[in-house]
Amino acid sequence: MAETDIIIIGGGLAGLVAAYEATRRGRKVVLLDQEGPQSLGGQAFWSLGGLFMIDTPEQRRMGIRDSRALAEQDWMGSAGFDRAEDAMPRAWAEAYLDFAAGEMWGYLQGLGLRWFPVVGWAERGGSKADGHGNSVPRFHITWGTGEGIVAPFVREAKAAEAKGLLEFRFRHRVTALDVEAGRVTGVRGDVLAEDEARRGASTSREIVGDFAIKAESVIVASGGIGGDHEKVRRLWPEERLGKAPEVMVSGVPDYVDGAMQEVAKGAGAAAINEDRMWHYTEGLTNWDPIWPNHGIRILPGPSSMWFDALGERMEAPCLPGFDTLATLKRILATGHGHSWFVLTQSIIEKEFALSGSEQNPDLTSGKWRAVLKERLGKGATRAVEAFKEKGADFVVADGFDELVEGMNRITPEVPLEAVKLRRQIEARDTQLENPFAKDAQIIAIRQARAYRGDRLIRTAKPHAILDPSKGPLIAVRLNILTRKSLGGLHTGLDGRVLRADGSVFEGLYAAGEVAGFGGGGYHGYNALEGTFLGGCIFSGRVAGREA
């Protein structure tokens, strides 16, 4: 006799959505998480709260004409599905596009979510119309950021707990799935010592007991691998991207270690596309870290000049905000893992944002007064100015030679030539002398400013980098930042996990990043942004309705 109807492993966004859907059906749920209650919501809590949605009221108010057909062209051109095992990921992508163009906005709005009225234009591609990138802005930032996305599902979970439909068991780490006659019938694992460390910080792995629970169904929603750099390197696709960098910063806490995915595979679950990953190229070392090797990503506007470690300006589509995967490959081709932004104070004030709820207290507060003060006041946001002042990756100087000297102090092993850098910057600056240009980045800046949203809050008025009135000059060393797994447990459209032979692994479901956000990798090779949280919501919804 089962102790409960459903066990959900992982209290992140996908697990919470699955719990919401399951308890709405009257199913009894036990939700297990190796961390404490302070970490409920997982990685989603730390996010900027961006969601990929199609043809929304927010888009239409901004004059953006979007459609399911255009979004599909963008998605499939970005995904590049080319493997036999991509059949399910492709089917999941189609299903998500239907959701994002249909029920998604109303479903979330009904739970109380609202969105910042300026829709962001992320991952712009910059190559071919049917290639990678978003043709139009689709990045909807949730009022309250990641905290705002997590909150309604936590609220609903607490309500289900009060009704006796949901039980939280924190500090429970699953180490095995029980399988009888080919069907998952429960889980076993370790009870970890209580630890009141703040959200995201490392916690004790001291074992104080064990547990075993039986259930009709088990949903794995345990997240990705980005906190385990050894595992990231082991799966790194060197033939596609080049050698993994020696130094990376972590965009996720260290408990994001992929351990539960290995448990599921050991029990007979299939995983596919594990070599597909999504790591950012604009990572900063956090001057005020929460987790080990804590990194923060810059969300750049289009104007910073981007140089590789050897001082060569990077070409299109390796421009700020355009093509993450192409830029990652381009950076690693130098044999080094870092690159540089060179910009001005005028650019940083208008264009720099930092990813994450804790770096955007104004948006996280959901209050217009706070947003207007931060975004339209003098200077960059307080979070950006703090990084500029205290961050190990920033150089600020009044003169150009002084700037390069500061850059070389940070990376003495790869010194830059001031004359070479100056020549490239001056060449770029000459492209501003008349309304015509052949420089791809200048053309992109002018296109960005044609969009009302970018002109208002995301793109500085074009100016010469070496114009002293726009200074001081700023250089930022950029590191590779680990973040998302694009592959994972192979699932059917009902969320059920598949075995290596394609048959259903009875009793086992998966949702969120551990399932490649759906099907074992519904992004393919490239992500269009807003599709990580969106994929957690969609796949958690499916699993919670089907289990």
Can you walk me through this structure?
The chain has about 550 residues and is α+β, with helices and mostly antiparallel strands. The chain has 2 domains: about 5-225 and about 485-545, FAD/NAD(P)-binding domain; about 280-480, no CATH class. The chain contains 19 helices and 20 strands. The strands form 4 sheets. Strands 1, 2, 5, 6, 7, 8, 19 and 20 form an 8-stranded mixed sheet that branches. Strands 9, 11, 12, 13, 14, 15, 16 and 17 form an 8-stranded mixed sheet that branches. The longest helix has 18 residues, at about 145-160. The chain is globular.
Question: How is this fold's topology laid out?
Answer:
Layout: E1 4-9, H1 13-24, E2 29-33, E3 50-52, H2 57-61, H3 68-79, H4 87-101, H5 103-110, E4 139-141, H6 145-162, E5 166-170, E6 172-180, E7 183-192, E8 207-220, H7 229-235, H8 238-241, E9 248-250, H9 259-267, E10 271-272, E11 277-285, E12 295-299, E13 305-308, H10 324-332, E14 339-344, H11 345-351, E15 353-354, H12 361-365, H13 368-376, H14 382-390, E16 394-397, H15 400-410, H16 418-430, H17 440-450, H18 452-457, E17 473-485, E18 488-489, E19 496-498, E20 504-510, H19 531-546
Parallel strand pairs: 1-2, 1-8, 2-5, 8-20, 9-17
Antiparallel strand pairs: 3-4, 6-7, 7-8, 10-18, 11-12, 11-17, 12-15, 13-14, 14-17, 16-17, 19-20
Helix pairs in contact: 1-6, 1-19, 3-4
Short summary:
Helix content is 34%, strand content 21%. The protein is α+β, with helices and mostly antiparallel strands.
